[in-house]
Structures are given as C-alpha cells and as structure tokens.
Request: fold
Amino acid sequence: MAMWKGTISFGLVAVPIQILPALRSHRSAFHMLHAKDNSPVQRRMICPAENVFVHPEHQQRGYPVGDDKYVVVEDEEVKQLEPKRSETIEIESFVDLDEVDPVYFDRPYYILPTGPAKPYRLLVEALGESNRAGIAKFVMHAREHLVALRAVGDALCLQMLRFADEIRPGDDVAPDEGKLAKKDIDAMTREMKKLYGDFEPGMIEDRYQKRIDKLIKKLRKTEGTVSPPGSATEEAPQVEHQPARDLIAVLEESLAEARGEDE
Amino acid sequence: MTRSTVQVDGRKLTVTNLDKVFYPACGFTKAGVLDYYNRASAAILPYLVSRPVSLRRFPDGAETEGFFEKNCPDYRPDWMGTHRVEHDSGPICYCGLDEPAALLWAANLGALEFHPLLCGAGEPTRPDWMVFDLDPGAPAGLADCIEVAFLLRRMLAAVDLQAWVKTSGGKGLHVYVPLHTDVSFDQTKSVARTFARTLEKHQSQRITSVMKKSLRAGKVFVDWSQNDSHKSTVAVFSLRARPLPSVSTPVSWDELSAANESGDPDSDLQFLTDDVLADLDRRVEIFAPVLELRQKLPDLD
Reply:
C-alpha cells in the first residue's frame, strides 16, 4: 500500500513515515467489448504506415521538434536525467493555511508513522492548533513535487500542490468592465446571506455513478451477463416474469409453419 | 413576430408566425401544421387524452435538431392541466393534451411530434398496449419491415392476439397489440423480448433484436424495449419531423400486402397530411380496435 517511505525532517525533528493514497476509487469504468463475441477489446500501438501492431520491443522514444521531425532519445539517457528519489521530506517553511489558495491543491495523500506514534501525533496536533501547513519539495516516482503537510482530523495529510506556472491567474480570464458600485456589491451580499450555511462534505455525492450502479443492477437482473467465448459462464436473466418455455415453443412452431408454406 | 388570436372550442388561443416555413423541402408552413392538427384533432386526441405525453418540439422547423419536452412549460394557459407521473428519476408533470385547444397550443410551440407513454396517466404501471417498433437498417427498407410485420402477426395469432399497424411516418412500421387488461410493463417487455428474440433466431440474417446500430445494417430491428414505463412512442396521426410533412398513419393488413406486391411500398405507404385528411374517417376506423379491444397476454407461468 505504501507509495513512498522516508523521513519528515525540519530543525531537530525527524519523523519516519510512509505515504498512502487518500482517494479511494468508487467509480467503475466501462470496458469496451467486441459486439460480435463480447471479448474485451485491447488498445494496441499501431504503425499507420504499415498498419501493423508494433511490439514494445520495437518502439523507441522520439522527441518532436517540428512537423514530422523527431530526435531519438534512448531510455537510458532519459533515466539519467530523472531527479533522484528523496530520502526525506525537508520542510522549508510553515505557512498560514489560510494563505494557500485552494486552487493550488492537487491530489491528497495520507502520511502514517512507521516508527513510534508520538512525534507524528505531536506534529499533527501542533499543525492543527497553529493552522499552519509545512511546505516541502520532494521526489516521488521520478517527479519533483511541491507539497503541503497539514492536519486533517487526527491524521497528517500530504497535499500535493500545483506549481505556480501551471495555473492561469484568474485576472487573465475575468471580465473587466469598469468599477462596481459599493451598494450593488452590498445588495449581492444580502442576497447571498439568505443562503449562508455550513459546508457538509456529505452533500456532495456522485449521483451519476449512483444511477449507473442502479442501471447495471437492473440490467444484470433483466438481461443477464455476457462473456467472451470460452470463458466464464454467462448469467441468464432473472426477471420476475420469465416467459415459459411453452411460449417460445409455440412461437417457434408458428414460424416453422410460415417457412413450410413458403416452400 | 406576427400574432393572431383564434377561437378553439370556446378557448381563446394566440398563435404566432403562421407563415414560417416548417418543412422547407415543400414550403409547408406553421399554418399548415396548425390546420392539420385542427382538422385531425378528433382522430389523434383519443390517443393523447389523459395520457402522459412528451412534446417533440422543432421551433425552427422539421429539419432542425428539435428537442423533447417532458415537463409542461410553466407558461401554459391557465385552463390547461397537467398529468403528474412519479418516475424512478422523480416526478414529471406532462402537458394535459385533453382538448383540441391544448393540442393546438402545443403545436403552436413547434411541437410537431406527440409521444405518449404506453399507459394512461391514472395507471402509470399498466400499459394499454404492447408495441413493436420495426426499424429497418439500410439497405433494408419498408418491404423488409412488411415481411417482418406479417411474421409477427402470425406469431401473435398463435397465442390468440390480434395486432394493428401504423406507419412510423418514416421508413418503419409500428405494430400495436391492444391489451386493456391487468398487465405490467415487466410482462409486456418480457413477452415482447421473447417475440423479438424468436424472430431473430428464425431469420438472423434479416432480423435483429439488438439496438446497437452497427449490428443493424441490412436488418430489421425489432425494438421490443419501448415496452417500458418511461418510454414513449410517437402517437398515431402525429406529424413527423421529416423532409415532407408525413404522418404516422394506420394501415390495414391488406394495404400492407398490396404495398409489398406493388413493388413500391415507400410511395404506397407514405402518407402526407393531405392524404390523411382526405381519408380520415377510414384511417380512424382501421386503428379503432387499438383503443378498446381487451386482450390477455399469454399465460406466463
């Protein structure tokens, strides 16, 4: 489960920790099937010139430098440029959490202690109480990341941050047409106040996914499942009103008669 | 915007842009649409009254995208009611198309097509009809649909059910099996699926029961899945949004076989507004049993 193991350090403090993902996936993606036989189709790298499947062994890296122009680079050469994996998360500063605009927040992870729990708990408590976040740079998975360590409940959260140049300033995109009058802003605020409330994360739920789940459950019951040839057994539909074999037999018989008359 | 006020059965109705062309291929205007629905109202209304009906609106004409409107707009006239139906996804208040004025009000909004659910508003879980939508995938055409319709008729007869047919107004046919007895959508859907799959097994080269477009080329798709509490089918006598103002029109089994033998079913079975109005009483007569004949689905146990 651990994605990275190492030490958080600043000043005289060193806390051995591991990093775990904080997001759990509750989405199930569709697989694309060959409609003819229900085999799941695969993605393959194709050479358009020869229209053949190109095995990974016969692929190489090319860096585009213009129309149809590439510089070929060996995997080894790229590897040498990758930043070296950090052994520590070296905190550079502790900033007021309110100063970090949420627009910088990327994926969250959790940090758990791998040694004694006490220094970890002290750090979480102190971060929470001071409402501060520890800012650090460190290398995981061959990428350098800017992160904020902050308290989420009793746990320490490693919040990946986006680099400043990844985010377009809001002023660049906002409309700019003259000054706004104070009384108009006040009127807008009064309108908003009617809806002031507390944020409850539970109010956000993925209704689309819920509807998908419901549909799948219903279809599994009414339509059964399909499988590629020679694999798992297909499930028959379990509808309440499964037509009797008799009905099918009667219908087939009526069609057989039709065929007989045609000949 | 040009407006005028008309009287429909004592209701005052404002109609707009009467000279706007709705079917550019032949210059058929909005006035033509309203005139058709006015003169055909007694024919179509029995299939709309007290039913949940979705409007398929084309405010900019039949060759534009159009959109389905299920919930009746708030700006409906105050004399017009709605039919509220609880669906799994929440309640929907359909327009109450219960009188000629309501029909014309909707048509004035560019509702060329009327798509009722297969049940009455009072009993949203009991379908009045079992429906098969025969939809040909090119190069299959109307001639193939006619043959499938006759196979379907034969199968239905084997379980003592009678059926009636209307054109889709396009390239297909709709086969209606009136029920008007105690039955559920689960039952009609299951039985319809069994019919469709048996047909597919019988002539897999020409017939499919699978919706997927890529599997339909050259085959007649027997759509059984419309037998569902939230699915609608275009009403008989409804206009269609096609290049010409064609109408989903009742046809007799004799007409179907004659059209097949004539070799030009596409023209024999294309009914435009004038064709339908010229022969309205007979067309109404052909489909009349669909409104009231009580039939029981075959025993399923």
